[in-house]
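Saturday, quiet lab. Running sequence design on the C-alpha coordinates for the scaffold JK sent over.
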Protein backbone atom coordinates (compact mmCIF):
# COMPACT_ATOMS: atom_id res chain seq x y z
CA UNK A 1 0.00 0.00 0.00
CA UNK A 2 1.32 3.40 -0.90
CA UNK A 3 0.23 6.68 0.64
CA UNK A 4 1.14 9.93 -1.07
CA UNK A 5 1.53 13.16 0.86
CA UNK A 6 0.39 16.13 -1.23
CA UNK A 7 -0.20 19.80 -0.45
CA UNK A 8 0.76 23.30 -1.45
CA UNK A 9 4.41 24.34 -1.14
CA UNK A 10 5.36 25.13 2.48
CA UNK A 11 2.32 23.41 3.94
CA UNK A 12 4.49 20.98 5.94
CA UNK A 13 4.62 17.88 3.70
CA UNK A 14 8.31 17.18 4.16
CA UNK A 15 8.04 17.92 7.86
CA UNK A 16 5.27 15.35 8.17
CA UNK A 17 7.16 12.87 6.00
CA UNK A 18 10.26 13.23 8.12
CA UNK A 19 8.47 12.82 11.41
CA UNK A 20 6.54 9.75 10.34
CA UNK A 21 9.52 8.12 8.70
CA UNK A 22 11.80 9.31 11.49
CA UNK A 23 14.51 9.76 8.94
CA UNK A 24 16.09 13.15 9.00
CA UNK A 25 16.45 14.20 5.43
CA UNK A 26 19.12 16.83 5.28
CA UNK A 27 17.80 20.35 5.53
CA UNK A 28 19.34 21.20 2.16
CA UNK A 29 17.14 18.59 0.49
CA UNK A 30 13.97 20.23 1.65
CA UNK A 31 12.17 21.99 -1.14
CA UNK A 32 14.13 20.24 -3.87
CA UNK A 33 12.12 18.42 -6.43
CA UNK A 34 13.17 14.79 -6.05
CA UNK A 35 10.56 12.53 -4.50
CA UNK A 36 11.15 11.22 -1.01
CA UNK A 37 9.91 7.71 -0.47
CA UNK A 38 10.13 5.40 2.52
CA UNK A 39 8.82 2.09 3.74
CA UNK A 40 7.61 2.52 7.29
CA UNK A 41 6.73 0.02 9.97
CA UNK A 42 3.14 0.09 11.08
CA UNK A 43 3.30 0.50 14.85
CA UNK A 44 1.22 -2.10 16.69
CA UNK A 45 1.26 -2.46 20.47
CA UNK A 46 -0.30 -5.92 20.18
CA UNK A 47 2.65 -7.15 18.12
CA UNK A 48 5.02 -5.67 20.70
CA UNK A 49 3.23 -7.58 23.44
CA UNK A 50 3.27 -10.85 21.49
CA UNK A 51 6.96 -10.38 20.84
CA UNK A 52 7.62 -9.95 24.55
CA UNK A 53 5.76 -13.19 25.23
CA UNK A 54 7.27 -15.40 22.49
CA UNK A 55 10.70 -13.81 22.50
CA UNK A 56 11.25 -14.70 18.80
CA UNK A 57 14.43 -14.21 16.79
CA UNK A 58 12.60 -11.70 14.62
CA UNK A 59 9.76 -9.23 14.94
CA UNK A 60 8.21 -8.15 11.65
CA UNK A 61 5.78 -5.24 11.56
CA UNK A 62 3.36 -4.69 8.74
CA UNK A 63 4.69 -2.01 6.40
CA UNK A 64 3.33 0.74 4.23
CA UNK A 65 5.04 2.98 1.76
CA UNK A 66 4.89 6.73 2.19
CA UNK A 67 5.79 9.22 -0.52
CA UNK A 68 6.41 12.94 -0.18
CA UNK A 69 4.99 13.94 -3.56
CA UNK A 70 6.93 16.99 -4.65
CA UNK A 71 6.83 18.92 -7.91
CA UNK A 72 4.13 21.54 -7.48
CA UNK A 73 5.47 24.74 -8.96
CA UNK A 74 4.66 28.37 -8.96
CA UNK A 75 3.73 29.52 -12.46
CA UNK A 76 4.52 32.85 -14.12
CA UNK A 77 1.21 34.25 -12.95
CA UNK A 78 2.27 33.56 -9.35
CA UNK A 79 -0.35 30.88 -8.75
CA UNK A 80 0.50 27.25 -8.16
CA UNK A 81 0.75 25.08 -11.28
CA UNK A 82 -0.48 21.51 -11.26
CA UNK A 83 1.77 20.18 -13.99
CA UNK A 84 1.22 16.86 -15.75
CA UNK A 85 4.43 15.65 -14.16
CA UNK A 86 3.09 16.36 -10.69
CA UNK A 87 -0.30 14.78 -11.39
CA UNK A 88 1.30 11.63 -12.77
CA UNK A 89 3.20 11.22 -9.49
CA UNK A 90 -0.07 11.48 -7.57
CA UNK A 91 -1.68 8.75 -9.71
CA UNK A 92 0.32 5.82 -8.39
CA UNK A 93 -0.78 6.17 -4.76
CA UNK A 94 -3.54 4.09 -3.14
CA UNK A 95 -4.54 6.92 -0.84
CA UNK A 96 -3.59 10.55 -0.39
CA UNK A 97 -2.86 12.76 2.56
CA UNK A 98 -3.37 16.43 1.81
CA UNK A 99 -1.44 18.59 4.23
CA UNK A 100 -3.28 21.86 4.73
CA UNK A 101 -1.47 24.71 6.35
CA UNK A 102 -2.94 26.59 9.24
CA UNK A 103 0.24 27.60 11.01
CA UNK A 104 1.44 31.17 10.70
CA UNK A 105 5.11 31.70 10.03
CA UNK A 106 6.28 35.06 8.68
CA UNK A 107 9.59 33.48 7.64
CA UNK A 108 7.79 31.00 5.41
CA UNK A 109 5.15 32.84 3.39
CA UNK A 110 2.09 30.91 2.27
CA UNK A 111 2.25 30.65 -1.56
CA UNK A 112 -1.25 32.12 -1.91
CA UNK A 113 -0.46 34.98 0.45
CA UNK A 114 -2.85 34.05 3.22
CA UNK A 115 -4.00 31.14 5.38
CA UNK A 116 -7.31 29.75 4.14
CA UNK A 117 -7.78 26.04 4.67
CA UNK A 118 -10.99 25.57 2.68
CA UNK A 119 -9.55 27.42 -0.30
CA UNK A 120 -6.47 25.18 -0.28
CA UNK A 121 -8.54 22.01 0.03
CA UNK A 122 -10.76 23.14 -2.83
CA UNK A 123 -7.75 24.00 -5.00
CA UNK A 124 -6.64 20.36 -4.93
CA UNK A 125 -10.13 19.04 -5.35
CA UNK A 126 -10.72 21.24 -8.40
CA UNK A 127 -7.42 20.34 -10.03
CA UNK A 128 -8.06 16.62 -9.50
CA UNK A 129 -11.59 16.94 -10.87
CA UNK A 130 -10.35 18.77 -13.99
CA UNK A 131 -7.65 16.18 -14.58
CA UNK A 132 -10.19 13.35 -14.23
CA UNK A 133 -12.67 15.10 -16.50
CA UNK A 134 -10.09 15.23 -19.28
CA UNK A 135 -9.30 11.52 -18.90
CA UNK A 136 -12.95 10.46 -18.71
CA UNK A 137 -14.08 12.68 -21.59
CA UNK A 138 -11.45 11.31 -23.92
CA UNK A 139 -12.21 7.70 -23.03
CA UNK A 140 -15.97 8.23 -23.44
CA UNK A 141 -15.42 9.50 -26.98
CA UNK A 142 -13.22 6.54 -27.88
CA UNK A 143 -15.59 4.04 -26.33
CA UNK A 144 -18.55 5.38 -28.25
CA UNK A 145 -16.71 4.91 -31.53
CA UNK A 146 -15.62 1.40 -30.61
CA UNK A 147 -19.11 0.40 -29.48
CA UNK A 148 -20.59 1.57 -32.78
CA UNK A 149 -18.32 -0.89 -34.54
CA UNK A 150 -18.34 -3.83 -32.13
CA UNK A 151 -21.51 -3.59 -29.98
CA UNK A 152 -19.36 -5.16 -27.28
CA UNK A 153 -21.27 -5.57 -23.96
CA UNK A 154 -18.19 -5.13 -21.80
CA UNK A 155 -17.40 -1.83 -23.45
CA UNK A 156 -20.99 -0.73 -22.98
CA UNK A 157 -20.73 -1.41 -19.27
CA UNK A 158 -17.49 0.57 -19.16
CA UNK A 159 -19.13 3.44 -20.99
CA UNK A 160 -22.03 3.57 -18.57
CA UNK A 161 -19.64 3.77 -15.59
CA UNK A 162 -17.60 6.49 -17.23
CA UNK A 163 -20.70 8.48 -18.15
CA UNK A 164 -21.73 8.32 -14.52
CA UNK A 165 -18.28 9.66 -13.57
CA UNK A 166 -18.57 12.40 -16.14
CA UNK A 167 -21.84 13.59 -14.64
CA UNK A 168 -20.43 13.62 -11.10
CA UNK A 169 -17.28 15.44 -12.16
CA UNK A 170 -19.26 17.99 -14.14
CA UNK A 171 -21.17 18.88 -11.01
CA UNK A 172 -17.75 19.58 -9.48
CA UNK A 173 -17.87 16.68 -7.05
CA UNK A 174 -14.84 14.49 -6.38
CA UNK A 175 -15.45 10.87 -7.37
CA UNK A 176 -14.35 9.54 -3.99
CA UNK A 177 -17.60 10.76 -2.40
CA UNK A 178 -19.61 8.44 -4.66
CA UNK A 179 -20.36 4.81 -3.75
CA UNK A 180 -19.40 2.75 -6.80
CA UNK A 181 -19.95 -0.99 -6.65
CA UNK A 182 -17.15 -3.55 -6.78
CA UNK A 183 -17.36 -4.08 -10.57
CA UNK A 184 -17.41 -0.36 -11.21
CA UNK A 185 -14.31 0.15 -9.06
CA UNK A 186 -12.60 -2.63 -10.96
CA UNK A 187 -13.28 -0.87 -14.25
CA UNK A 188 -12.22 2.54 -12.93
CA UNK A 189 -9.03 1.21 -11.35
CA UNK A 190 -7.21 1.10 -14.68
CA UNK A 191 -7.66 4.84 -15.20
CA UNK A 192 -5.85 5.82 -11.98
CA UNK A 193 -8.23 8.72 -11.51
CA UNK A 194 -7.22 11.27 -8.91
CA UNK A 195 -10.42 12.47 -7.32
CA UNK A 196 -11.49 8.88 -6.58
CA UNK A 197 -8.57 8.23 -4.25
CA UNK A 198 -9.36 7.97 -0.55
CA UNK A 199 -8.26 11.21 1.08
CA UNK A 200 -6.98 12.13 4.50
CA UNK A 201 -7.09 15.86 5.02
CA UNK A 202 -4.36 16.66 7.55
CA UNK A 203 -4.57 20.13 9.07
CA UNK A 204 -1.14 21.37 10.09
CA UNK A 205 -1.69 23.48 13.19
CA UNK A 206 0.60 25.76 15.09
CA UNK A 207 1.46 24.77 18.64
CA UNK A 208 -0.81 27.51 19.99
CA UNK A 209 -3.68 26.36 17.78
CA UNK A 210 -3.50 22.78 19.06
CA UNK A 211 -5.77 23.35 22.01
CA UNK A 212 -8.36 24.74 19.57
CA UNK A 213 -8.00 21.80 17.20
CA UNK A 214 -11.65 20.87 17.65
CA UNK A 215 -12.76 24.24 16.29
CA UNK A 216 -10.74 23.86 13.08
CA UNK A 217 -11.73 20.24 12.64
CA UNK A 218 -15.42 21.05 12.89
CA UNK A 219 -15.15 23.78 10.25
CA UNK A 220 -13.64 21.37 7.75
CA UNK A 221 -15.81 18.43 8.70
CA UNK A 222 -18.92 20.52 8.04
CA UNK A 223 -17.86 21.21 4.47
CA UNK A 224 -15.72 18.28 3.44
CA UNK A 225 -16.49 15.10 5.33
CA UNK A 226 -18.05 12.23 3.48
CA UNK A 227 -17.41 8.81 2.04
CA UNK A 228 -13.71 7.95 1.56
CA UNK A 229 -12.64 11.13 3.31
CA UNK A 230 -11.15 11.65 6.77
CA UNK A 231 -10.06 14.80 8.49
CA UNK A 232 -7.38 14.95 11.14
CA UNK A 233 -4.93 17.45 12.58
CA UNK A 234 -1.31 17.49 13.66
CA UNK A 235 1.39 20.03 14.32
CA UNK A 236 4.47 19.66 12.18
CA UNK A 237 6.53 21.67 14.60
CA UNK A 238 5.51 19.68 17.68
CA UNK A 239 5.95 16.37 15.86
CA UNK A 240 9.47 17.40 14.87
CA UNK A 241 10.28 17.97 18.52
CA UNK A 242 8.71 14.65 19.53
CA UNK A 243 11.01 12.70 17.22
CA UNK A 244 14.03 13.46 19.37
CA UNK A 245 12.45 12.70 22.75
CA UNK A 246 12.48 9.47 24.73
CA UNK A 247 9.14 7.69 25.00
CA UNK A 248 8.67 8.94 28.57
CA UNK A 249 9.49 12.55 27.77
CA UNK A 250 7.33 12.41 24.66
CA UNK A 251 4.33 11.37 26.76
CA UNK A 252 4.73 14.33 29.10
CA UNK A 253 5.29 16.71 26.20
CA UNK A 254 2.22 15.46 24.35
CA UNK A 255 0.09 15.84 27.45
CA UNK A 256 1.08 19.51 27.71
CA UNK A 257 -0.33 20.11 24.24
CA UNK A 258 -3.36 17.90 24.66
CA UNK A 259 -2.14 15.39 22.05
CA UNK A 260 -3.09 11.79 22.70
CA UNK A 261 -1.55 10.16 19.64
CA UNK A 262 1.46 10.90 17.44
CA UNK A 263 0.82 11.96 13.85
CA UNK A 264 2.18 8.63 12.66
CA UNK A 265 -0.19 6.55 14.79
CA UNK A 266 -3.16 8.70 13.85
CA UNK A 267 -2.34 8.72 10.17
CA UNK A 268 -1.89 4.98 9.94
CA UNK A 269 -5.00 4.21 11.95
CA UNK A 270 -7.10 6.49 9.75
CA UNK A 271 -5.50 5.22 6.54
CA UNK A 272 -6.19 1.60 7.52
CA UNK A 273 -9.78 2.51 8.24
CA UNK A 274 -10.13 4.47 5.02
CA UNK A 275 -8.70 1.65 2.92
CA UNK A 276 -10.65 -1.05 4.74
CA UNK A 277 -7.50 -2.74 6.04
CA UNK A 278 -6.86 -4.77 9.18
CA UNK A 279 -4.10 -6.87 10.73
CA UNK A 280 -3.68 -10.45 11.79
CA UNK A 281 -0.70 -12.07 13.47
CA UNK A 282 1.46 -15.14 13.16
CA UNK A 283 3.59 -16.07 16.18
CA UNK A 284 6.36 -18.48 17.05
CA UNK A 285 9.91 -18.85 18.27
CA UNK A 286 11.36 -17.75 14.94
CA UNK A 287 9.17 -14.83 14.17
CA UNK A 288 6.24 -12.76 15.41
CA UNK A 289 4.67 -10.94 12.54
CA UNK A 290 1.79 -8.60 11.69
CA UNK A 291 0.15 -8.95 8.27
CA UNK A 292 -2.13 -6.53 6.52
CA UNK A 293 -5.26 -7.69 4.73
CA UNK A 294 -8.52 -6.22 3.46
CA UNK A 295 -11.46 -6.44 5.85
CA UNK A 296 -13.74 -9.28 4.82
CA UNK A 297 -10.97 -11.58 3.60
CA UNK A 298 -11.44 -15.21 4.53
CA UNK A 299 -8.92 -17.55 6.14
CA UNK A 300 -7.75 -18.98 2.83
CA UNK A 301 -7.16 -15.54 1.32
CA UNK A 302 -5.29 -14.46 4.45
CA UNK A 303 -3.16 -17.60 4.20
CA UNK A 304 -2.38 -16.61 0.61
CA UNK A 305 -0.97 -13.30 1.83
CA UNK A 306 1.58 -15.24 3.89
CA UNK A 307 2.48 -17.52 1.01
CA UNK A 308 0.77 -18.37 -2.27
CA UNK A 309 1.29 -22.09 -1.52
CA UNK A 310 -0.70 -21.70 1.69
CA UNK A 311 -3.63 -20.54 -0.43
CA UNK A 312 -3.43 -23.48 -2.81
CA UNK A 313 -2.81 -26.12 -0.16
CA UNK A 314 -4.97 -24.66 2.58
CA UNK A 315 -6.62 -27.18 4.92
CA UNK A 316 -7.61 -25.29 8.05
CA UNK A 317 -6.62 -22.31 10.16
CA UNK A 318 -6.03 -22.44 13.89
CA UNK A 319 -7.46 -19.23 15.28
CA UNK A 320 -7.23 -17.43 18.61
CA UNK A 321 -8.04 -13.77 18.92
CA UNK A 322 -5.29 -11.62 20.43
CA UNK A 323 -7.59 -10.45 23.27
CA UNK A 324 -8.48 -14.04 24.19
CA UNK A 325 -4.87 -15.11 24.05
CA UNK A 326 -3.81 -12.32 26.39
CA UNK A 327 -6.75 -12.93 28.71
CA UNK A 328 -6.18 -16.67 29.03
CA UNK A 329 -2.36 -16.46 28.93
CA UNK A 330 -1.50 -19.30 26.55
CA UNK A 331 -2.75 -21.35 23.62
CA UNK A 332 -3.41 -24.31 25.93
CA UNK A 333 -5.53 -22.23 28.28
CA UNK A 334 -7.30 -20.56 25.38
CA UNK A 335 -8.15 -24.05 24.12
CA UNK A 336 -9.53 -25.07 27.52
CA UNK A 337 -11.68 -21.96 27.52
CA UNK A 338 -12.99 -22.79 24.05
CA UNK A 339 -11.31 -19.74 22.53
CA UNK A 340 -8.93 -21.69 20.30
CA UNK A 341 -10.70 -22.85 17.16
CA UNK A 342 -10.12 -24.70 13.95
CA UNK A 343 -11.71 -22.78 11.11
CA UNK A 344 -12.29 -23.65 7.46
CA UNK A 345 -11.42 -21.53 4.48
CA UNK A 346 -14.68 -19.54 4.56
CA UNK A 347 -13.93 -18.14 8.03
CA UNK A 348 -13.79 -14.34 7.88
CA UNK A 349 -10.61 -13.20 9.58
CA UNK A 350 -10.99 -10.54 12.29
CA UNK A 351 -8.64 -7.72 13.17
CA UNK A 352 -6.27 -9.10 15.82
CA UNK A 353 -6.69 -12.80 15.06
CA UNK A 354 -3.62 -14.95 15.65
CA UNK A 355 -3.52 -17.52 12.86
CA UNK A 356 -1.65 -20.70 12.25
CA UNK A 357 -2.28 -22.21 8.82
CA UNK A 358 -2.50 -25.96 8.35
CA UNK A 359 -1.65 -26.91 4.81
CA UNK A 360 -0.60 -29.87 2.72
N1 LIG B 1 5.54 27.18 12.86
C1 LIG B 1 5.43 26.04 12.17
N2 LIG B 1 6.24 25.85 11.13
C2 LIG B 1 6.11 24.69 10.43
C3 LIG B 1 5.15 23.70 10.77
N3 LIG B 1 5.24 22.69 9.89
C4 LIG B 1 6.23 23.04 9.03
N4 LIG B 1 6.77 24.24 9.35
C5 LIG B 1 7.85 24.95 8.67
O1 LIG B 1 7.40 25.37 7.39
C6 LIG B 1 8.43 25.25 6.41
C7 LIG B 1 7.96 24.42 5.25
O2 LIG B 1 7.76 23.09 5.68
P1 LIG B 1 8.03 21.86 4.70
O3 LIG B 1 7.71 20.64 5.50
O4 LIG B 1 9.37 21.95 4.06
O5 LIG B 1 6.87 22.13 3.63
P2 LIG B 1 6.62 21.44 2.20
O6 LIG B 1 7.06 22.44 1.20
O7 LIG B 1 5.14 21.24 2.17
O8 LIG B 1 7.38 20.16 2.16
C8 LIG B 1 9.64 24.66 7.14
O9 LIG B 1 10.50 25.70 7.47
C9 LIG B 1 9.02 24.03 8.39
O10 LIG B 1 9.93 24.03 9.44
C10 LIG B 1 4.31 23.94 11.92
O11 LIG B 1 3.45 23.14 12.30
N5 LIG B 1 4.49 25.14 12.56
MG1 LIG C 1 8.84 19.56 0.81
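Result came back. Writing it out in full:
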Amino acid sequence: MQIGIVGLPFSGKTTLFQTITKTHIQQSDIGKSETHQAVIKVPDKRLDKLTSIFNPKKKVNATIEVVDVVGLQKGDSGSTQFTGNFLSKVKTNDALVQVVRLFENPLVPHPEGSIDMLRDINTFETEFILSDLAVVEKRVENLKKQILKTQDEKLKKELSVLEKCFEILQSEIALRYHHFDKDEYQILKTYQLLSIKPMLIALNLDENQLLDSEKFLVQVIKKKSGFNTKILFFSGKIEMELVDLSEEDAKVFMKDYGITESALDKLIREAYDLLGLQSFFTVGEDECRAWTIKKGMNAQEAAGVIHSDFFKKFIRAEVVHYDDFIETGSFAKAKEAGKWRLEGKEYIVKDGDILSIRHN
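Notes for JK: The chain has two domains: 2-274, 296-359. DSSP finds 14 helices and 14 strands in the chain. Ask whether to fix the surface positions before the next round.
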